[in-house]
């Protein structure tokens, strides 16, 4: 096997030397083509979430955002969005044996802690039957509800909820009626 490989190499060298003796021009080496990204256009292959830094460049991450702790209800950013958590939950235990969120947000203790009680839908099973305790499928709060930070949004959002749209429409109709 080794003899076969060395014979092949020798044959290649002899062919190269023979080509040089015939005064043939050296082969042209073309520069590599620009990389084409998933969208097909290398000039536009910039990820906006990377602060317009090319994907092939290493980025220093921004500092971690701080959790907002205002205890104020926020407007929703899209239809059917679960409410956000308006306070820090650092150190909260939410596991198979304990759910720290339910200390304040259970329906029977929410008034005592001036907290918003969890929705009745959290006490329903898959068959829409009411349970005495929070449904196991709704037990891990942070799978749907998230805390808010002071981070600048990565993508703009023009969402307006239906109540806002109806108020604006009524106001516009009232304005036209007075004219």
Please describe what this structure looks like.
The protein has 179 residues and is an all-alpha fold. The chain has a domain at 66-179: Flavocytochrome C3, Chain A, domain 2, CATH 1.10.1130. It has helices at 2-21, 101-105, 110-113, 162-178. The longest helix has 20 residues, at 2-21.
Can you give keywords for this protein?
4 helices, mainly alpha, Flavocytochrome C3, Chain A, domain 2, elongated, 179 residues
How is the biggest beta sheet arranged?
A: none
DSSP strand count: 0
Q: List the uncertain runs.
A: none
Number of helices: 4
Subcellular location: Periplasm
Protein name: Periplasmic nitrate reductase, electron transfer subunit
Pfam family, one: NapB
Organism: Luteimonas composti
Write the layout of secondary structure elements.
Elements: H1 2-21, H2 101-105, H3 110-113, H4 162-178
In short:
Residues 26-47 are annotated as: Disordered. The chain contains 4 helices and no strands.
